[in-house]
Amino acid sequence: MTDFFDGIPAITYDPDATHDFTYRSYNPDEMLMGKTMAEHLRFAVAYWHSFAWEGGDPFGGQTFERPWFGDTMDHAKIKADTAFDMFKILGQPYFCFHDADVRPEGDTFAESTARLHEITDYFGEKMEQTGTKLLWGTANLFSNRRYMSGAATNPDPDVFAYSAATVKECIDVTHKLGGENYVLWGGREGYETLLNTDMKRERQQAGRFLQMAVEYAHKIGFKGSILIEPKPQEPTKHQYDYDVATVYGFLKDFGLENEVKVNIEQGHAILAGHSFEHELALASALGIFGSIDMNRNDYQSGWDTDQFPNSVPEVALAYYEVLKAGGFTTGGTNFDAKLRRQSLDAQDLILAHVGAMDVCARGLKAAAAMLEDGKLEDAREARYAGWGSARGQGLLNSDLETINAQVKADALNPQPASGRQEALENLANRYL
């Protein structure tokens, strides 16, 4: 135990409590649609924002002071001790990490790798003691200056090789720790100007890189899901994994549509010009839904602010799509969210997660009520009822000439029917 969270009690469900350190909506044992709330939500803490981020922004540097900030393995172990203290306080079942979050960078690849294995062995001991599990691991292939022109898409083959070797080690430690997924996030896989970019070459490199990751996961017997996290723009003008549709096209190009799923982030969906529920619904329709990063952006800012969720209606619509997709299998709800740089205290870190978990719980309950009541799905089914008829199905198996003749023979003059958007919005709001 460390003393960073001294005085903060373990958080339990008590909707009548008069203090802040309680769950008012998240009851992990409450049953919904045949599962407990904990089984539905599968909460995870993001190691990077909670323990590695220093409180900077584009206009200012570090504001946080943490006892684990430093570049030694002793600092890394203090960070781990504190992290697992927090997981215990919150009752968090999972966490997620990048390699660079958990160990200091070495002077050589071999030194960085040795440090990664040392700290993940330490994680293994603490996971066994606490019961906390790994939702997913990943590699940081974007922060170091070597990745300024990308990792898999870099014009320098040596950077590609370094990146591939790093991913191999990160898959190894994820597998060793029983991770349920492995995520690839291409933070720098894009371009700032076409004047120096060969898009065809870079896409081919990225495709082969992903194929290698899948091949290696199979080779070592990794049973978890391989996930790509779509990300538009920021910091580059264009990225090759812009949104769910772009990722699916990429997967189809390289024969990976049955091998790789997506980890969808709310903030990234907004930056791509979509809603979170749009990206979730599309991933489900395409058969590549995997996991989510739950956060939000400030809608008055044009960048990825990674704030903790606080809108029950937004969260409810997201979980409605998750539940419609059958819920999580290996995936879960990772809080890829960070404190505001003025929120300096240990209790701020705890209460940010408490509030977010309560918001998610309320959203989940609303989503379950909507789905179980069935009125939204009944209205959707009624709108497309004609396509379930023999005539509707026959049209899809026909041809233009035959259809043309039928329309003329029947003197068709179809009239539009209301989409009833306002009525359905009113209906959805009744559950919130």
Query: Which strands sit side by side, in order, in the main sheet?
Result: 3-4-5-6-8-10-11-12
Q: What count of structural domains?
A: 2
CATH superfamily of the largest domain: Divalent-metal-dependent TIM barrel enzymes
Radius of gyration: 24 Å
Largest sheet: 8 strands, parallel, barrel
CATH top-level class of the largest domain = Alpha Beta
CATH overall fold name of the largest domain = TIM Barrel
The helix fraction, in percent, is 40-55%
Total number of strands: 12
Question: What would you call the structural class?
Answer: alpha/beta
What's the pLDDT, averaged over the residues?
A: 96
Write the H/E string, N to C: EEHEHHEHHEHEEHEEHEHHEHEHHHHH
Draw up the topology in text.
Blueprint: E1 31-32, E2 35-36, H1 37-41, E3 43-46, H2 47-52, H3 73-90, E4 94-98, H4 99-102, H5 109-130, E5 133-138, H6 157-176, E6 181-184, E7 190-191, H7 199-220, E8 225-228, E9 238-239, H8 244-253, E10 260-265, H9 266-271, H10 276-286, E11 289-293, H11 312-324, E12 333-335, H12 346-373, H13 375-383, H14 390-396, H15 400-410, H16 421-429
Parallel strand pairs: 3-4, 3-12, 4-5, 5-6, 6-8, 8-10, 10-11, 11-12
Antiparallel strand pairs: 1-2, 7-9
Helix pairs in contact: 3-5, 5-6, 6-7, 10-11, 11-12
Structure explained in plain terms:
This protein is α/β, with parallel strands linked by helices. It has two domains: 31-373, TIM Barrel; 386-429, no CATH class. The protein contains 16 helices and twelve strands. The protein has helices at 37-41, 47-52, 73-90, 99-102, 109-130, 157-176, 199-220, 244-253, 266-271, 276-286, 312-324, 346-373, 375-383, 390-396, 400-410, 421-429, and strands spanning 31-32, 35-36, 43-46, 94-98, 133-138, 181-184, 190-191, 225-228, 238-239, 260-265, 289-293, 333-335. α11 links the parallel β11 and β12 (333-335). α5 (109-130) packs parallel to α6 (157-176), α6 (157-176) runs parallel beside α7 (199-220) and α11 packs across α12 (346-373). It is globular. The relative contact order is 0.11.
